[in-house]
């Protein structure tokens, strides 16, 4: 909608609207403007004319055309115009966000804008999804969105004091809906069925009143929640592929109720889900322990069933301008049933012909046919039980003193409790062909009703000096943990033993934290150049008490730690508010961090793997690490962006895993010990540009390099030696996209090249080189008669892995064809997933102890036909 403003010579600047030229008219200037268009800089003056009452002439229609602006700035708010981006019919909010310059969606629904994390995703200014970004991204239709605003929102303390408070604001993304969807309610219904009995059912509804916003959803599918083709308009990614095959049935409700003056707010959610996961994998592990490397091959299949019910509710109340009160309660219950079947074998040399059937047949042979076999194992594990979790907190902020230098006090009481009850059966059979012996155990494991209780209280007293741009917080925290685990193990096989173990853990932490924070301040004689400085000093007192009851005996352990930490950060920023709207920000952070050992590393725990024994180490000392980070960002009109990130971390004292490995049987005993000298370094450069604010091209590129050094300790033949692993890695990324009114193309390429050096004084050094290359081309086309087509083709190339099934090229092709009728109310869609049937699930990990490669099952190729129907109900009179 364009606005016409009339400027009359004698009447000043009248309001915009329609004007009639009188006979005694004066020269009139007409200016046409649009909020998203750059001002032309001049007006057009109508030439002098004489009006003739008897003769009239109708001017020809004047058409004003302009490129649609994708984003612009409105003060400090970055606004994305949703109509400037094309999405396929039936696309959701995530498909829209992925096209917006500077916006990235990370796993788990985390959103970043220009590398800055988004704290809260709002809908029309309300937190309707209560932090569940994924729910909004996958269910809110892109067709409902008018624009998306990104801005910094002040926190509770700044609102209470009425002053800017450093570190009390967060970047929020506010999704503004179109007017017809901002009142009343609307819903999406989606149902589909396809080959291999794939099905999909979704129902999502959202409603608004003046003070109430709510949403409800139901979802059922057996698509493993993998990113389906076309969901992101063709921008499918291998990294977002789900492993295993999962079927889910679930639903939930979210609500947000508040007064128009925001004096109080009540919000919460209720959700339930029933899921079943079928998973199997083949793993090849090259164990780097011992005087010679050995190879372990395992085949696992599991069925995991879970029923969960969750609810949480939150309440806020503001007492005038002196205090506020916040309360929260959450309850989570789950019932879990897991069954796992495992076949594995450890060999002294690499084997190419190993299969699950080979291991199972070899277990039954009376004599060993291969002297290179260390052991063969078969395990059937079943586990069933319940878990309940309750969390409550109450927090209040009080303004003790206002005036020029306000003083505030924050008090919080937090408690949580977890109850667990599980019982299971671990049926294990191990054969040692080298010794021609076997061992069988049939353990029934009961985890009696156990619990853990946490409660925390803290008080923060903060003095603000607004005139000096300074704040000084002083915080005291007390945290208490009580954890009780009781296990009963009945060996109902040959030995028929009754073993029981109870761990009673008491942890108390006292923490003092003092901070000095210099607010953003302009440097003298340079109003556009600002700096921010803050420093933290923390002293934590940690006290641990362990009471271990085993075999009728009790052992008491008491440990105390003093843990000092400190960090400092300085930020320089320069902004040019002129036409260029350029900005530069440089941040440097450094510090020293200490932390106590995890109590789970200091006590022994039951492990269901009979070839693995874990022993607690109560002599562990606290870890100590230093870090330094440098980051710089340069933006030009938010169109071109450069960023550099450099980090270095050095562990003066860390905790590593020490192992004792029996090369005859393959039995491994592990314990955690302290070690010094580990470090890691990383450098990355990124660049992106959109070739003008409304240009069709977007380009992004990045390159990074990293190096990591780690250790593992090995006890072999009464000798202790250190294994060292060093990883060098170079990664790069390149992306290019082009879009106009009816089509969009995107090309993304990623490459990872890693070099691993792993070895010790006994075995020498072994070098590994792995290469991984991924390239995806995606496109979206708006076709005549409301047809649309989206497709993506990905190439994944891997080399340097031990398993030949991994060293291959995979072509993954997905496509979506959709047709909408009734002005988009009804949409028919056909999805084709993994058309070439080459998709595989691959994972790779290397440490000082082992090199592990796993191939997992993924959802098979399928074709799915589904229908989406939109419902929109509005009040008779929409508010202005």
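-> sequence recovered:
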């Amino acid at each position: 909608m364009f606005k016409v403003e009339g400027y009359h010579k004698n009447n000043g600047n009248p309001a915009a609207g329609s004007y009639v030229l009188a006979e005694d008219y004066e020269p009139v200037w007409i200016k046409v403007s649009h909020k998203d268009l750059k001002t032309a800089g001049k007006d057009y003056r109508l030439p002098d004319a004489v009006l003739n009452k008897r003769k009239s002439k109708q001017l020809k229609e004047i058409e004003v055309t302009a490129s649609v602006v994708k984003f612009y700035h409105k003060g400090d708010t970055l606004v994305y115009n949703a109509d400037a981006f094309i999405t396929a019919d039936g696309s959701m909010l995530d498909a829209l966000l992925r096209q917006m310059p500077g916006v990235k969606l990370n796993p788990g629904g985390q959103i970043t804008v220009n590398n800055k994390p988004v704290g809260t995703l709002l809908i029309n200014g309300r937190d309707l999804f209560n932090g569940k970004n994924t729910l909004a991204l996958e269910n809110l239709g892109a067709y409902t969105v008018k624009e998306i605003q990104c801005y910094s929102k002040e926190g509770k303390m700044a609102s209470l004091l009425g002053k800017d408070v450093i570190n009390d604001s967060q970047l929020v993304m506010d999704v503004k809906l179109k007017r017809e969807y901002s009142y009343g309610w609307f819903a999406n219904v989606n149902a589909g069925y396809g080959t291999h009995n794939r099905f999909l059912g979704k129902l999502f509804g959202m409603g608004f009143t003046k003070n109430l916003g709510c949403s409800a959803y139901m979802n059922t599918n057996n698509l493993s929640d993998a990113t389906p083709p076309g969901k992101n308009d063709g921008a499918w990614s291998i990294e977002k592929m789900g492993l295993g095959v999962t079927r889910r049935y679930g639903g939930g409700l979210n609500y947000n109720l508040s007064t128009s003056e925001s004096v109080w707010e009540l919000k919460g959610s209720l959700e339930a889900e029933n899921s079943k996961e079928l998973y199997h994998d083949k793993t090849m592990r090259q164990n780097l322990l011992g005087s010679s490397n050995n190879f372990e091959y395992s085949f696992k299949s599991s069925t995991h069933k879970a029923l969960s019910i969750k609810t949480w509710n939150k309440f806020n109340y503001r007492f005038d301008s002196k205090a506020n009160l916040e309360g929260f309660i959450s309850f989570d219950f789950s019932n879990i049933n897991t069954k796992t079947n495992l076949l594995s074998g450890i060999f002294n040399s690499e084997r190419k012909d190993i299969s699950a059937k080979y291991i199972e047949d070899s277990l039954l042979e009376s004599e060993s046919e291969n002297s290179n076999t260390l052991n063969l194992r078969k395990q059937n594990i079943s586990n069933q039980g319940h878990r309940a979790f309750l969390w409550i907190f109450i927090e209040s902020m009080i303004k003790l003193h206002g005036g020029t230098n306000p003083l505030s006090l924050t008090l919080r009481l937090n408690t949580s409790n977890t109850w667990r009850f599980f019982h299971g059966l671990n049926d294990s059979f191990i054969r040692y062909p080298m010794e021609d012996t076997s061992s069988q155990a049939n353990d029934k494991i009961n985890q009696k009703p156990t619990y853990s209780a946490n409660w925390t209280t803290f008080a923060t007293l903060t003095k603000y000096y607004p005139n000096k741009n300074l704040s000084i917080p002083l915080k005291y925290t007390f945290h208490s943990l009580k954890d009780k685990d009781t296990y009963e193990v009945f060996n109902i096989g040959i030995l028929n033993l009754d073993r029981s173990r109870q761990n009673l853990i008491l942890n108390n932490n006292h923490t003092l934290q003092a901070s000095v924070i210099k607010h953003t301040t302009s440097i003298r004689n340079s109003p556009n150049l600002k700096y921010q400085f803050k420093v933290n000093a923390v002293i934590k007192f940690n006290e641990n008490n362990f009471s271990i009851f085993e075999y009728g005996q009790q052992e008491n352990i008491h440990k105390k730690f003093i843990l000092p930490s400190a960090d400092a950060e300085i930020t320089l920023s320069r902004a040019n508010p002129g036409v260029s709207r350029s900005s530069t920000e440089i941040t440097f952070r450094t510090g020293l961090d200490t932390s106590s050992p995890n109590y789970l590393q200091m006590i022994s725990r039951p492990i269901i793997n009979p070839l693995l024994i874990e022993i607690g180490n109560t002599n562990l000392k606290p870890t100590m690490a230093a870090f330094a980070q440098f980051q710089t960002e340069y933006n030009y009109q938010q169109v071109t962006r450069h960023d550099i990130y450099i980090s270095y971390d050095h562990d003066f004292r860390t905790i590593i895993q020490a192992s004792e490995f029996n090369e005859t049987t393959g039995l491994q005993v592990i314990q955690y010990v302290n070690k010094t000298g580990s470090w890691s370094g990383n450098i990355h450069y990124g660049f992106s540009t959109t070739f003008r604010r409304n240009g069709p091209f977007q380009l992004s590129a990045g390159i990074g390099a990293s190096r990591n050094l780690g250790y593992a300790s090995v006890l072999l033949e009464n000798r202790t030696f250190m294994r060292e692993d060093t990883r060098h890695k170079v990664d790069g990324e390149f992306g290019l996209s082009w879009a106009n009114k009816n089509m969009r193309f995107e090309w993304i390429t990623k490459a990872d090249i890693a070099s691993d050096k792993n070895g010790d004084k006994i075995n020498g050094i072994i070098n590994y080189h792995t290469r991984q290359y991924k390239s995806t081309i995606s496109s979206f086309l708006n076709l005549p008669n409301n047809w649309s087509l989206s497709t993506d083709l990905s190439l994944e190339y891997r080399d340097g892995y031990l398993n030949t099934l991994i060293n291959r090229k995979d072509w993954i092709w997905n496509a979506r064809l959709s047709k909408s009728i009734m002005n988009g109310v009804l949409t028919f869609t056909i999805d084709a997933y993994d058309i070439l049937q080459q998709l595989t699930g691959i994972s790779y990990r290397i440490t000082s102890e082992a090199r592990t490669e796993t191939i997992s099952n993924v959802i098979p190729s399928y074709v799915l036909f589904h229908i989406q129907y939109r419902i929109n109900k509005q009040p008779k009179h929409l508010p202005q």
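Confidence is low (pLDDT under 50) at residues 1-56, 62-66, 226-235.
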